[in-house]
């Protein structure tokens, strides 16, 4: 295989993709297999070019100086310029790159002639107009105007080059913009998403019915189905609506800072109010007042299935509203993952990226508020129900561990609310049935499965076992939080002095891929922390049944799916830089295993 022509750190001239202009670049890497160079602009933007699209800086300057060495006075004379030493003789064989350079020079000459021709026509029309109006001719007023025009030809040519560069960039931007149509369908395409619309609610109801069984083993599948009229209660639906709009009211309160999200495809940045933790504190105060006035919070446990049905019905109605409203949204506001043109698929994944009612962002609100805070309230209700049903003065140690671990997770998410603005849910996924059902039904009613299970199936654990489970949860939380903090800080400000110790691989998009810290350990360390915490949440339930470990199994499947989607997305986005990153960090989630 032939050796590389340009070394790392060498300054060269690279051609802009799709154009004829060359720019000064610095070589930062080389791929031996594809013979493609990675180059960097002065502003840090990276680009991958083939060797035939790169010229050495010395030859480029020599050619340029020879083409412009003649003065304007010499160009007006009839002297014939001698052949440049850099130009090949007629009988000399030219390489493909030299032939391309020659064509580029010819195009520049054609542009020069066109500019001169347009200027002459403009001068001629201006002079004719002035003569018709009785004004003196421009050459009579200033007989050096033609000379000044001729001397300004090269600046005019540079202006033309700048215009051409601008057109090329606009063309590339339009190409990226128009290519936002979803081509690769996830979740099994149209048939898969249609099935999931019914399968997801059925899964939630099955899990809740099984937890109510005295022996929730797989041998007792399917559980006895309740009467349909018992699944709906108008009062319960009213309580759910009250909860939803109470959280919306907290969201609208003018407390907390307002921050900008990441740039959209149009370059616009949306504004978000960060007050989720304040909403949690206000909710805790409201629950405390209800308990002070002896409100029976275990009402949630007694009507848990009806609350799940009410939440599912509301999420379906919200999804229909979101899809109808998205049909009126401009093309640039549609989600890149939910713009397939297929009704069922776009309804499931979300057609519009950031649906809003005025400044009220529906997706951002549902992401952290009603479901996540509701999860903590449900866990508290299960704790109180356990004490009442089993006549306990104190909750069991297992219930305390589950409540504490999951409370820490929710408080952490609300405290670091700003970090959610960099997640795929906000930046890439639309707001449709998938996220609406997930935020309002799956999170509060499936994530609280361990607490719901412990009410009907109390499990006693010793203090040493509880201590070991606590240590496991702390390890998972530390990995999860520190990895996410590294990622979010680096995304927002790579030049932060606190991140100076981190190394990264530059990419053509101008972003970097971290190869030290947690992200140099595995490709998705935050997923590793999630799995460890999910296991710690289930262990207090013991090993009598597999049902409490459904969350762990589901979470592993979810993260493997997300990891595969992230891999595909990053490979398309970062190209060769991602391949280099994968060679540097071979393990995806679990080191030495996966």
From TrEMBL:
Chief location of this protein within or outside the cell: cytoplasm
EC identifiers of the protein: 1.3.1.70
Any Pfam family the entry gives: LBR_tudor
Location of the protein in the cell: Cytoplasm; Endoplasmic reticulum membrane; Nucleus inner membrane
Biological-process GO terms, alphabetical: cholesterol biosynthetic process
First-tier enzyme category under EC: oxidoreductase
Residues covered by the Lamin-B receptor of TUDOR domain: 1-55
Keyword annotations of the record: Cholesterol biosynthesis, Cholesterol metabolism, Cytoplasm, DNA-binding, Endoplasmic reticulum, Lipid biosynthesis, Lipid metabolism, Membrane, Nucleus, Oxidoreductase, Phosphoprotein, Receptor, Steroid biosynthesis, Steroid metabolism, Sterol biosynthesis, Sterol metabolism, Transmembrane, Transmembrane helix
Disordered: annotated span: 52-104
Top-level lineage group: Eukaryota
CDD domains: Tudor_LBR
Gene Ontology CC terms: endoplasmic reticulum membrane; nuclear inner membrane
Pathway membership, UniProt: Steroid biosynthesis; cholesterol biosynthesis
Transmembrane region(s): 187-210, 230-253, 274-293, 305-324, 435-455, 461-480, 501-522, 542-561
Any GO molecular function: Delta14-sterol reductase activity
Membrane topology, record value: Multi-pass membrane protein
InterPro entries: ERG24_DHCR-like, Lamin-B_rcpt_of_tudor, Sterol_reductase_CS
Record field: catalytic activity: 4,4-dimethyl-8,14-cholestadien-3beta-ol + NADPH + H(+) = 4,4-dimethyl-5alpha-cholest-8-en-3beta-ol + NADP(+); 5alpha-cholest-8,14-dien-3beta-ol + NADPH + H(+) = 5alpha-cholest-8-en-3beta-ol + NADP(+); 4,4-dimethyl-5alpha-cholesta-8,24-dien-3beta-ol + NADP(+) = 4,4-dimethyl-5alpha-cholesta-8,14,24-trien-3beta-ol + NADPH + H(+)
Family statement: Belongs to the ERG4/ERG24 family.
Protein name: Delta(14)-sterol reductase LBR
Species the sequence originates in: Jacana jacana
């Amino acid at each position: 295989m032939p050796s590389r022509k340009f070394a790392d750190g060498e300054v060269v001239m690279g051609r802009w993709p799709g154009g004829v202009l060359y720019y000064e670049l610095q070589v930062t890497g080389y791929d031996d297999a594809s013979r493609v160079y990675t180059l960097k602009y002065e502003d840090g933007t990276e680009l991958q070019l083939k060797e035939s699209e790169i010229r050495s800086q010395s030859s480029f300057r020599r050619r340029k100086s020879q083409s412009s060495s003649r003065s304007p006075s010499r160009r007006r004379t009839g002297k014939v310029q001698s052949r440049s030493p850099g130009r090949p003789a007629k009988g000399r064989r030219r390489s493909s790159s030299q032939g391309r350079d020659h064509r580029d020079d010819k195009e520049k000459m054609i542009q020069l002639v066109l500019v001169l021709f347009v200027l002459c026509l403009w001068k001629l029309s201006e002079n004719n107009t002035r003569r018709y109006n009785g004004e003196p001719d421009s050459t009579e007023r200033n007989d050096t105007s033609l000379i000044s025009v001729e001397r300004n030809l090269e600046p005019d040519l540079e202006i033309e080059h700048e215009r051409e560069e601008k057109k090329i960039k606009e063309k590339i931007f339009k190409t990226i913009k128009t290519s936002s149509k979803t081509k690769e369908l996830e979740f099994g395409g149209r048939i898969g998403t249609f099935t999931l619309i019914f399968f997801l609610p059925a899964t939630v109801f099955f899990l809740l019915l099984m937890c109510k069984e005295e022996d929730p083993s797989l041998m007792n599948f399917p559980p006895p189905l309740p009467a349909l009229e018992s699944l709906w209660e108008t009062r319960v639906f009213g309580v759910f609506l009250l909860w939803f709009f109470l959280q919306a009211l907290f969201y609208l309160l003018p407390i907390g800072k307002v921050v900008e999200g990441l740039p959209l495809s149009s370059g616009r940045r949306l504004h978000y109010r960060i007050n989720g933790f304040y909403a949690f504190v206000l909710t805790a105060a409201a629950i405390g007042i209800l308990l002070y006035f002896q409100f029976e919070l275990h009402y949630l446990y007694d009507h848990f299935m009806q609350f799940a049905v009410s939440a599912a019905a509301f999420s379906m109605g919200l999804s229909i509203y979101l899809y109808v409203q998205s049909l009126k949204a401009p093309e640039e506001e549609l989600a890149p993952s939910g713009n397939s043109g297929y009704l069922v698929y776009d309804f499931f994944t979300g057609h519009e990226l950031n649906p809003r009612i005025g400044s009220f962002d529906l997706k951002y609100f549902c992401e952290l508020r009603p479901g996540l805070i509701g999860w903590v309230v449900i866990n508290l209700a299960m704790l109180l129900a356990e004490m009442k049903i089993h006549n306990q003065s104190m909750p069991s140690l297992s219930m305390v561990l589950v409540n504490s671990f999951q409370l820490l997770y929710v408080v952490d998410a609300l405290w670091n609310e700003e970090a959610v603005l960099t997640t795929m849910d906000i930046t890439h996924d639309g707001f449709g049935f998938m996220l609406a059902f997930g935020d309002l039904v799956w999170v509060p009613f499936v994530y609280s499965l361990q607490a719901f299970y412990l009410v009907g199936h109390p499990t006693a654990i010793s203090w040493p076992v509880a201590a070991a489970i606590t240590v496991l949860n702390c390890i998972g939380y530390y990995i999860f939080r520190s990895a996410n903090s590294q990622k979010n800080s680096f995304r927002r400000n790579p030049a932060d002095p606190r991140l100076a110790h981190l190394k990264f691989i530059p990419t053509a998009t101008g972003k970097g891929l971290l190869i030290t810290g947690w992200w140099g350990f595995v490709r998705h360390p935050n997923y590793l922390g999630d799995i460890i915490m999910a296991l710690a949440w289930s262990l207090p339930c013991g090993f009598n049944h597999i049902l409490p470990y459904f969350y762990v199994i589901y979470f592993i499947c979810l993260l493997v799916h997300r990891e595969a989607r992230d891999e595909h997305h990053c490979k398309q986005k970062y190209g060769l830089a991602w391949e280099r990153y994968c060679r540097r960090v071979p393990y995806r989630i679990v080191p030495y295993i996966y």
